[in-house]
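Could you please review the protein record set out just below?
***
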Amino acid sequence: MQAIWGDEGRYRRWLDVEIAVCEALARRGLIPREAVPVIRARAAFDPARIAEIEAETRHDVIAFLTNVAEHVGPEARHLHFGMTSSDVLDTALALQIRDAGVLLREGVERLGEVLRRRALEFRHAPCIGRTHGVHAEPTTFGLKLLVFHLEMQRNALRLARALEEAAVGKISGAVGTFAQLPPEVEEEVCGALGIGFEPAATQVVQRDRHAALVSVLALIASSLEKIAVEFRHLARTEVREVEEEFGRGQKGSSAMPHKRNPWRLENVTGLSRVMRGYAVAALENLALWHERDISNSSVERVVFPDATAALDFMLHRLAHLVETLRVHPERMRANLDLTRGLCFSGQLLLALTARGLSREEAYALVQGHAMETWERGGDFRERIQGDPRVAELLSKEEIERAFSLEEALRHVDAIFARSLGETP
């Protein structure tokens, strides 16, 4: 990622744009055909020399063209023919976005695949589902991971669409009117470079395209935070259903030798906050004065390299953490049993209403025993089995079914089948 956004990578893509325009112009007889092989063979640049020239000219594209001309010689007069600086900058930016996108898509696909693999591994590992942070009904750890996998699949589609929309160039001149070059040149150049073109531009490609991309990057980062926060909660001492991998010789605290902290998951959480800030900055870039001003430029010099590099790091960090995550199914089962059967209250409620009780009567009966279990301890199932009102309505087998983990999780395989396209 650093190679894409560093000086060398940026100037290399500027030169690619300039040469592609020369080739298109030569085919139309707008510049001499024999000039193109010379330009292609001699064109080079020196970032240090460009910086030296820019210190005097205070214009980056002019400094770049001056340095390239020093390498090319007289044929350099054909470079930048009929173009404005933004023709180079925005078209090269599209190339950087496209190339950075390749790396980001690889990261999204890697994380999605790791989540899928571990979801299958723990498909039938029962654990307690929690709503409001409080025990609710049984689920499986595999289902938690499956939900995350499907979200990453959606993120992969969003990213692909956003990259296609943002990887767009323009060679339409100072205010987008093609005053010096015909539209066909723009279409040909962008096609040769493997990017789209802006059908109607001002001096710049419109920044809603870039804001949409950075917003998608922030959305993906927020998905990563969602996963990290879930694992962080499950790693708490009182829960301890999962743990970050802890290496030999690793230290968790300078003061407390016993500590094993989910610090890398916390990294992911923290960086997601930065990513959402970048989305706000990109949205602010939409409103430029008239056909353009330069207020977007300084923002983009920070946002694009940092946002793509940060998300790339986050994706691979979290993929590694999921891959090496220590999972404790026995602890999950112990936590599921912690409330002594209360997580089956919903199934019991339905069993009683199916036998003729009104929902209000059934709810009051079940809740009464549930609250007594909350307050006084003991076993919820035993209370239910000892209630003559329940015995009149439900057989022992029906009560057992209401408290059955297998019954509660009987559709897990169907959820996996429809989610992953498995054959039931």
Q: What stands out?
A: The chain has three domains: 2-81, 86-180+200-328, 342-402. The CA atoms of residues 161 and 213 lie 9 Å apart. The beta strands are 126-131, 134-140, 168-169, 196-197, 242-243, 326-327.
